Structure formats: C-alpha cells, structure tokens
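Q: My labmate handed me this sequence with no annotations at all. I'd like to see what the chain might look like in three dimensions before we decide whether it's worth expressing. Could you predict it?
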Amino acid sequence: MAKKFTNHRNKLVEHFKSFGTIEEARMNPHRNVSQDSWNYLCDWFSSATFQKRSLAGSNNRAKVPYNHCRGSLPFVVHRELKKAQEVQLIYIKTFHDTHTHKVKNSDDEDEVQWISKEAQIRHGSQPPEELAIFNEVTGAKKYKRQRVSSASSSDGVVNEFRDLIEILNEKIKSQEDQILKYQDEIKEMKDENQKMKDDNAAFKEDMLSRLGFAPAMYNNLPIPPQEHN
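A: Here is what I predict for the chain of 229 residues:
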C-alpha cells in the first residue's frame, strides 16, 4: 500500500513539473483527480516547504550508491532480528535479501531480480573474506556514515528499540489493569443495584404482610381518588 501511494505521488509531481508555469499546470489536472484537489496539490508542490523537502531528498538520494527494499529499518536492525531468531548472520546473503525482490515471470514462477544494477555489480565482487565482501558492497570503508561497521551504534539502536518496547508493554499493562478495575467497579455497582432492588421488594412484601394484603392483591389495588380543594 505504501509503495502504491509513493508511486502515485511521484506521478503527480512529475505531471506537475511537466508544465512551465503553475497556471498552466492548474489547467491540466492529472487524470482521476478533481479540479479542486489538483489546485490544492499545485499549491503544495509549488510551496517553499515542499521545494525544500524535495531538494533535501534529491541530495540524500544522490549520496546513496544503491537502494534497498527493506523499508526504513536500518541494516543493524535486520542483523539483530536475525540474532534474536537464532539465525546465523551471513553478510552477503543479508545484502542479497535486502537488495532483491521476487517477481512472477512468464512461466508463473518466482524470479529474483536486483533492484539496482549497481548493487548487483558490487555483490558480484569476490574479495577473500566474507566481511571484506560486506564492507565492499555496502561501502562501509568509503562511506563514513555507514552504521553497520559500528558495534556500539548497533547496540545503541537495539537498546532504543528494547526500551521503547518495554515502555509500550508497561503502558499496555497499565491500561489492562485500569480496564479490569473499571470492570470490577461496574460489577460492584450492578450487584449493589440488584441488592437494593431485592431489599425494596422484600420491604414491600413485609409491609403488605403486616397490613394483611397478599402481593397479588396489592398489584390490583385501585388508585385512590385525588382530593380537590
């Protein structure tokens, strides 16, 4: 769903940029987009906020040698997840898994495709050791911003995730305890209300018994006439 939204948004931006002026763009809305919605999008695409974000995104993408297909989770998170699952971490295979995806070919079978030619070329290199292959294909030595080569950074990210999960679990437990408390209070109120009803019925029966009336006779008593001044 997120992929479809991103692709659709990019198509809208490309359609907007295909016109020389914003007035011309307004006069040519994208298909399946109403005129009011398109006017709003034109104002947003031409705003300083969007232009600043777009420029920052372009600059960041230019620094990345190739993309991956595992969402916003950093590589260290995938590594720790494999450790948590007691799966032996293989750097080359992990790189392969995060930079390829499966598609149906003409024979209706799964076919593995690389998401970028650059990643495939780098993955095909054959240094002597696996960690050396990992460092080369990820650019860990060349790009100082790579976090995968730092054990302390990895531990920091994992600890942050663990702390966050612990906080969320505590909040969930607190809410569950509060719900149980409310349920107990509601049950007590219902029991007290039922007890009051039972006491009231018993009091009526006792009074009728003292007056010599049976309960059935009490229910059929005529309404006394009202006094008029």
